[in-house]
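Practice problem: MPN domain-containing protein
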Amino acid sequence: MPLTSVQVSEDVWLTCLAHSLTTETEEIMGLLFGDIQDLNNGNKTALIWGASPQMRSDRRKDRVETNPEQLAAASAQAEKLSQTIGRTTRVIGWYHSHPHITVLPSHVDVRTQAMYQMLDRGFIGLIFSCFSEDAQKVGRIQVIAFQSADLKQRYEYPARDTTVDIETSSSWSSFDNPRSASESPVIESIEQDSGDSRMTKTAKIVRSSDMEQSSTQNDIKYLEKQKMAESSIVLFNAENLHEISTNTDSIDMSDCVLEALHRSSMDISGAEYIRTEVPLIVLPTRALLKLDSPLSSFTDMQHMLFEEEQSAYKQALQQNMRNGKIHPLAYIHHTSTYQASLCKLIEYCLSPAVKVLQDRLKENEIRLGILMEEGISLERELNLESSPGGIKEVVH
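Answer key — structure tokens:
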């Protein structure tokens, strides 16, 4: 049975979002730690309270790859976390970014998700679409949680609302309200969808009304329709793909965005798998479980970014070695590039994180002082009331 909802802690949300914003030209990825909760009504909820950002073995704008050794190390890390917190923890999902690209998963993402689900039916995928902006140059971040479903067995799943619902306690202000769309009629045509596992040139397929009808044109119109109101993080609603924009000039669609939409949109006819959206809820970490160091995933991300740049620098030097020597100009070039990358990491990642943590520490110290003074005052009043004649003093 597929998942009915996903609950993510705020610390994991912060880690994934900060990791996605570290690079604007390349995709990133990481693994998610948690467990599956079986409810009394038969529903299954994925609880995520940890993240493991992964070093990339291949850096490209349209794909991201990691080494199998890191996947094994993540499993060992999950087992260690289980012993630390006293609760079963395992690799329960993965996340990656789509910079300047639609939030919809590509056919490669859907196929990869399907392979993970062969090992674990509760495996979940998260996509963070960032660095998108409207005509007013207002940034927008979209997030989607999805699973892969066998297209041949899709009709067996009960119909349910697949709107991605993101709730936060205090970190984000508001989201666009999801809008319902009319049900799709039975279709017999060649449809295009970004969440398909393979592509065929000509085919015909009859689909029921619970299957989403989406095409490249609808994806473009969906991006044109979405505008920022008050929040920089926007709720993704798959049903909005049915709506048609009346103003096609509202957003300046660049060539790279159009190319990304074209590549991510594949013909659904004869596909093996299709995406299914899962409602996403962001909760305070204490609502899921108690952790001694809830920001461990965030700090691990900072270490991973440094190790990734260092590994790329050493690999570049190794590739330019000739008989154990490297040309001085090549060494100067790679070293300067490495130092520039470290400066960017310090400026855009490490320094803001340290500043935020220092401010939070100072805020907590002030709050602790206020609470201690309040506690001393309450103890003094309690002693006066419990002492002989204390009640008389209070009355007078």
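Discussion: The chain has two domains: 5-288, 296-385. Students who identified this feature from the tokens alone can consider the problem solved.
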